[in-house]
Amino acid sequence: MTAQTFNPQSRQPIQPKTDLLNLETLKFTALMYLVEAGRNEDYEQMPEIIRFAREFGASSTEINTILGLE
Hints:
- Helix content is 57%, strand content 0%.
- By secondary structure, the chain is an all-alpha fold.
- It has one domain (18-67).
- The N and C termini lie far apart (60 Å).
- The model has no long low-confidence stretch (mean pLDDT 84).
């Protein structure tokens, strides 16, 4: 067995999955805005917030749970 020397130029940089992380963060933020809109009875804003939450990957179950439908 031979020892391998560390060569920093041959090392591949680690690419975090920022796209997935950003989508999860945006989804969570949209769902929190939905919670706040419900608390403040700001019903006019809710359809747009729901649209954003869905775009960012929120499921119908997550949205319905926040709205108290499940």
